[in-house]
Amino acid sequence: MFRPENAQSLAGVALVIGLCWALSENRRRFPWKLAIGAVAIQALLVLALFGVPALQAGLAGVGGAVDGLASSTQAGVAFVFGFLAGTPRQPYPLSDPGSLFIFAFRVLPVILVVCAASALLWHWRILKWVTQAFGFIFEKTMGLRGAPALATAATVFMGQVEGPIFIRSYLAGLSRSELFMLIAVGMACVSGSTMVAYATILKDVLPNAAAHVLTASIISAPAGVLLARILVPRDPESERPETLDLSETKTYDSSVDALIRGTSDGLQIVLNVAATLIVFVALVAMVNGALGLFPPVGGAPLSVERGLGLAFAPLAWSMGIARHDAPFAGSLLGVKLVLTEFTAFIRLGATPIGAIEPRTRVILTYALCGFANVASVGINVAGYSVLAPERRGEIMGMVWKAMMAGFLATCLTASVVGALPGALFGL
């Protein structure tokens, strides 16, 4: 049933697309067909995944797999770290059971295990076939060339820098629009390892959290393509048909080699995530300490979170979030942009059931599920400088705009979800 809040979310769709059009490098070349098609694809995918019984069962299976993966990971963590992993048997009486959830022992190891499993699935060609299938879909439905289509699909599962590795030899020949699109889509989606981590964080406060996180990453790809094409319109003359050669994609010598190298790659990601969180949270704490020297405003001390909440509350409201939840939602949107989405998800997961509306929690899950943040700017510059050193200057000139495109793409995704009937998600 269509309700006023669904119309409110349609305002978010119009706001995001209109803002990108206003900032476009060529407003006259607005991709009307792509805009209608991308939003329609998003809506149809969500309707199918949450409305078709067979696909619902598949999503439920994904949730079960995520829970099984998390519990299996905890077995390994408990073997190494003992009671610090949050095992039921604790050496001391517990006054706060919730304190057993320690991010370093409950979430980061999941990333490690998923990276190793992804490498194994790639070696067995399962993940490679899935990526190629999605690449074919993007190529045929969104008008992408073979190489960018494959990289876009790989980004959904592998990550913002890992995806373009598969077309490394093609990066130098991509048009400016295609290169911008790859960076933007990379920031609009998340990797398979972080999908599982986010679902682990939210599973106690959001029913079927794994299904929502997986869906969010998949359907944010078309949104990223659309907004990138609006901001930097394509040049048909520089995007001629090509033959795609996959012989240079990542290979492993054996299953054991895949597990070892996947674990090594996962360790680098875990260390980067942990270090980034420590530094960015510390910096914001420093700023909040300085703001605390000023007199309180509105009965509460000044803080980065309050400022971000005020700045992004209108955007949060336009996505379909209730007015009384908009400041909180706007704060999380700002935290995601400044402090990384991990911090935002941790705060969302720590928000008790009943403190915000269930609809707010669902919409925020989609809005936060992307890599668009300040830290990712550095990650992309560093990654693409290695993959395409001859285009480093060009990348430096577009990476901040790509971050904005990725951020708004997840907001567009959240708005599309908010425009659909709440009964679809059990609301």
Please, could you describe this protein's structure?
The protein has one domain. The radius of gyration is 21 Å and the shape is globular. The chain has helices at 4-22, 32-51, 53-81, 103-106, 108-123, 126-142, 146-158, 162-165, 176-188, 192-202, 209-231, 255-291, 304-318, 326-339, 341-350, 358-368, 374-387, 392-419. It has 427 residues and is mainly α. The protein contains 18 helices and no strands. The mean pLDDT is 84. Helix 2 packs across helix 3, helix 6 (126-142) crosses helix 7 and helix 14 (326-339) runs parallel beside helix 16.
Helix-strand layout with pairing:
Elements: H1 4-22, H2 32-51, H3 53-81, H4 103-106, H5 108-123, H6 126-142, H7 146-158, H8 162-165, H9 176-188, H10 192-202, H11 209-231, H12 255-291, H13 304-318, H14 326-339, H15 341-350, H16 358-368, H17 374-387, H18 392-419
Helix pairs in contact: 1-13, 1-18, 2-3, 2-11, 3-5, 5-10, 5-12, 6-7, 7-9, 9-11, 9-18, 10-11, 11-16, 11-18, 13-14, 14-15, 14-16, 15-16, 16-18, 17-18
